[in-house]
Amino acid sequence: MHPYDKALDKIWERINVTPPMHSEDFAAIVDLFDRLLRAGKHVNSVDDIGNYLMGKGMGRDMARNIQTIYEFLEIVQGTSQHPYWNDALIKELLA
Q1: pTM here?
Q2: d(CA 33, CA 72)
Q3: Which of 45, 46, 62, 74 lies at a C-alpha separation of 20 to 30 Å from 55?
Q4: Cis upstream peptide for 20 (omega within 30°)
């Protein structure tokens, strides 16, 4: 998960690690994952994201929510020429 170790550490340092996820935290996570995916950096297993964050002490629900953001962006990028995400849809999925 090499590039994601550093990325997830940045997420850990930057965001409020207790729910609810703040909108600026959400935007920062989407932006970070989007940039890594556009650069061709993928995780071996999507569970690595949640497990890594839980290993650092993040609660299970919050870690899995962040994992879901990655999953959604990875799926969308795999089906579209232009990266796109619907913030309202992702927020609804995490509600």
Answers
A1: 0.71
A2: 10
A3: 74
A4: yes
Give yes or no for a contact between 43 and 49, defined as CB atoms under 8 angstroms apart: yes
> For the chain, which residues make up each domain, given as ranges?
2-94
Contacts of 34 (CB under 8 A, 6+ apart): 73, 77, 83, 85
Average pLDDT on 77-91 reads 56
How many CA atoms lie within 13 Å of 14's alpha carbon, on the beta-carbon side?
A: 15
Q: Provide the terminal-to-terminal Cα distance of the chain, rounded to the nearest Å.
A: 27
Cα 4 to chain center, whole Å? 10
At 25-57, the pLDDT tens digits run 788 888 888 888 888 888 888 899 999 889 988
Residue 67, both tokens: 């994992």
Write out the DSSP string of 11-23: HHHHS--SSSPPH
